[in-house]
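[job 4471] stage=fold_predict status=RUNNING
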Amino acid sequence: MNTHYYDNFMEALAERYPRKTDLANALMDILPIEKESIYRRLRKDVLFTSEEMMRIAAVWHISLDNIISTNPHKIRPFSFNMINYLDPQEADYEMFEDYNKLLGLVGQDPDGRLIVVSNTLPGALYYRHDHLTRFHTMKWLYKYNMPENPFVLNDIHIHERMHLLMKECIEHTGNVPAIYAIHDNRFIEHLIGDIRYFHSIWMITDDEVALLKDELLELIDYMKDVAIKGYYPDTGNKLFFYLSHTNLETEYIVFDSKYITRVMVKILERNTVASSDKIVFQKFLQMVQSTMRSSVLLSGSNSLQVIEFYAKHRNLIESLT
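[job 4471] inference complete, writing structure tokens
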């Protein structure tokens, strides 16, 4: 086996789990071999077989093309995570469980942080409300996975196991020691516009608009309260709430802890492409710094601006009929 390729593979494993103990435990969940055999491979006393490497790469979405690339610094690995929220199979549940595990790892690090750059309402917020969750599922289905038969919001039902994973996502997100949320200053207006559009084409009834309106009002009251305090009342964990002065064209999440570093870029409404690559991670941290420079921090100290921002959008929500 080409040692250059093998070294690249080992480096990709170390990027996913920097601590060797965590890496060994994770590999034991994938490979049917004893822990000592895992450690022998990590020490390079014995090499991973081709079959073992392919199995690891498949489970952890490691790009073998990138590992054998002749110009790896110009080609960075990403994996496409496509969850079917409406009719999930076991693989869909497992992808959501993996996402929650990432949040859990960041939450275990006292210095862990989650950076969310978004021009729409994040899932960890709208998962708190049934009709908003169903609405986002309907919108995703309408835009990217149009079924043969017409459907309306009343046809959208979320499976109970998916509901439980969404609740876990809310809990794990709240346990992250510090969240940096950088929002487009029109992210609530975008959602109101979507509700009006789907109401205009008869996919949402008048009664459902009223229910969405009530949930949105409750949600922004919660968001305003957390932003003013600068922390989550139930956990005491910090929230740094930024509003961008420029339009945010790319939505992404950065997971940053001593246990895991990961970047997820949002595509197709509710899906992501993800990377554990160190170079990708550093590039996105640079993007975060640039975005922060063109944003204003509202949480904690600028309570008057927070109140003004949410009062403006509360009036817009009240106008929904």
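[job 4471] summary: The chain is about 55% helix and 15% strand.
[job 4471] exit 0
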